[in-house]
Amino acid sequence: MSSIGERPTTGSGGGGGGNANITQVGSTNVNATVSGNGFLPVGGWSTKVAQAVTTTAVTYTTGQVIGGLLTLADVTPNNDQRFLLQSVSVNCKSNQTIQLDVIFFNANPSGSTITNGSALAIVTADYDKISEVVHITDWTALNTTSFAQADNLARLLSPTSGSANVYACIVARGSLTSGTTSEMTLNVKTASV
Questions:
Q1: Domains located in the chain, CATH noted
Q2: What angle (nearest 5°) sits at the alpha carbon of residue 167, between those of residues 184 and 96?
Q3: Residues of the chain scoring pLDDT < 70
Q4: pLDDT of residue 86
Q5: Predicted local confidence at residue 42, as pLDDT
Q6: Cα angle at 12 between 9 and 13, to 5 degrees?
Q7: Which of 172, 57, 152 is nearest to 103 (CA)?
């Protein structure tokens, strides 16, 4: 046994998991179930996924989808692992200030209209696939480009069943003129629960 602040002297170290007992002040034992690699989870993991958004050189209007349905690959290190959505940001090649909504789905909303340049239309059958909506309103002008972010989210999400991916789409909540077919990048930061 070891005291708080010292390394535990009991527990499983190598592959299969087990129990570890850590003695607290006052001789109270805390039993922690260890799984996976056999170590107590300390620190967890975090990752950033950057997804290029293919746009059209047009003006998007309120309610239109920018870039169509996106697949954000490997937002977690393991299939079916729940995660915390920490932040969402957008890099734009032009100077923008409009609100964008980023909608996350835990399954493919295949019955809905989520097409670049078209009005977003979620059908009833896909309603329960929406897992989160993030409003991006905090823009910083960087001369001719811009950056927007929504931070400190800590939203609990699940990936698409059997994968480490989620689906997402970006919806304009104002007028956005795109001068290129590669106008923006969507960045998503996730972390362990």
A1: 1-42 (no CATH), 46-191 (2.60.120)
A2: 25
A3: 1-43
A4: 97
A5: 53
A6: 90
A7: 172
